[in-house]
Amino acid sequence: MRKVKIGIIGCGVISNTYTWLDIQACADLDRDKAVSTAKKYGIPKGCSTEELLNDPEIEIVINLTIPAAHTEVNKQILMAGKHLYCEKPFALSLQEAEEVISLAKSKGLMIGAAPETFLGAGLQTCRKVIDDGWIGTPISATANMISYGIETWHTSPEFFYKKGAGPMLDMGPYYITALVSLLGPIKRTACFANIGRKTRKIYSKPLRGKTISVEVPTTYTGIMEFENGVNANINMSFDIWMSNLPKLEIYGTEGTLILPDPNYFGGKIKIFRKERVLDALKLYGGEDKPQIDICEDIQEIP
Ligand SMILES: NC(=O)c1ccc[n+]([C@@H]2O[C@H](COP(=O)([O-])OP(=O)(O)OC[C@H]3O[C@@H](n4cnc5c(N)ncnc54)[C@H](O)[C@@H]3O)[C@@H](O)[C@H]2O)c1
Questions:
Q1: Residues of each domain in the chain carrying CATH 3.30.360.10
Q2: Cα(65) to centroid of ligand 1, in Å?
Q3: Could you tell me which residue ranges the GFO/IDH/MocA-like oxidoreductase domain spans (predicted)?
Q4: Could you tell me the distance, in angstroms and rounded to a whole number, from the CA of residue 64 to the centre of ligand 1?
Q5: What is the Cα–Cα distance from 75 to 231, expressed in whole angstroms?
């Protein structure tokens, strides 16, 4: 079988999760970073974007640059005649996304984009749970990514607070892709967003102590109406120190589905069936509802 040769553009934090692939070359704006990444992972060539795109052996290029550069780099990749895979967010606007898609079509090239976690065992098990009617007909859902920010762990967290990022564009794709894959297309949305803190102090190394000036909203409160009539709310925040909100839940006529974190391929799934409440009510005559744990794990997925 012929192995397709792959190139990576962007040698930052996430690039190491792609190095198990047959990478022919890696490139970065910072050439030294490209060279050191190549050396670290045994990649044959660390070079500039131009050199990588001129390599005739490379057929697929993975775009791991910062969001603000995605569209420009995506277009460069396609113009060089390479198939494209892009980290999320695929584009910063619908118009940009459509431009990239129509360029790929005109060149007869394929494109793919993160996230693909909805294809993992966790969310695919949820797909089967819903299809098999465990929670009946879905009525509503909630999606919540609540965190206090990226500057506590990322080596270059500034871009998360600049155009193209913020919690909705950065983490929203995992949650919304999961919901769309499970519930179908969204008909309409509404959202409010605000900036929790205008500046953020970096806690992680090597930029510890530096201040980030925040340019995009850091807390989003939204609602979505799906074409099948399901309503969902969504909260995405880099401003909240602690919360008990669940990551992802779908509520149906027969029960509740508590989904795993859609940022990962596996995770724990819980189902809460209406019988657990109704049987208890029957047993106790419906007067004194007992304090019982009516939530059961169905599966732990590695
Ligand atoms: N870090 C994570 O945990 C994570 C997880 C999933 C997805 N992602 C996504 O992956 C992408 C990269 O994230 P990261 O955390 O690796 O960022 P990073 O800042 O660590 O790395 C980005 C790299 O891209 C390079 N770069 C920027 N513009 C470029 C350009 N025009 N041409 C060539 N190189 C360029 C930078 O020099 C840098 O080395 C983002 O879209 C992010 O949303 C990150």
A1: 117-301
A2: 4
A3: 124-257
A4: 5
A5: 36
How far away, in angstroms, is 6 Cα from ligand 1 center? 17
Model confidence at 250: pLDDT above 80: yes
The model's pLDDT over 1-58, given as tens digits with 9 standing for 90+, comes to 888 999 999 999 999 999 999 999 999 999 999 999 999 999 999 999 999 999 999 9
Quote the crossing angle between the two packed helices 94-107 and 70-79, to the nearest 10°: 10
C-alpha Rg value of the chain to the nearest Å: 22
From 64, 76, 77, 156, the mutation candidate for ligand 1 (largest count of ligand atoms within 8 A of CB) is 64
User: Is domain 117-301 given the CATH code 3.30.360.10 in the classification?
Assistant: yes
Q: Quickly state the pLDDT bin for 230 (edges 50, 70, 90).
A: very high
Ligand 1 pocket (Cβ < 6 Å) reads 9-15, 28-30, 33, 49, 64-67, 69, 73, 87-88, 156, 159, 170
